User: Fold this.
Amino acid sequence: MTNPERELGTPFADLVRKGRRGRPYRTYAALAIDPVTGYTPSYTLVHKIEDGDPVKISPALVRGLAVAAEVPVRDLQIAAAAEYIGLVTTQISGAVGVATVAHAPGLSSDDMPLVHELLNRLRGEAGEDYS
Assistant:
């Protein structure tokens, strides 16, 4: 029997673990300094995250861990949304850039005609259709 709480896996924990690269928890936590607030998580919090335990997520925590893991903040934000609230993302690209759309599991780009319509309106004269 699968655990519905872990249906999407632990992408946030996985990114934190990968970013730690075997360094001790204390060392990694000390590097996880949020550049906006100066917040630094405790090493025990980092350990809990890696174990997939539920923790209180905050922007400062995610930004700090992104610094320590040397990954884009956006990657950790997306992973946290998937792991903690069950949202997944789809990237829809076209002539004016890429839109990342958060949605419930099971949808694809083809299931989001309104997103395509909005992006096509925004592209104006810039180029191709997003469909």
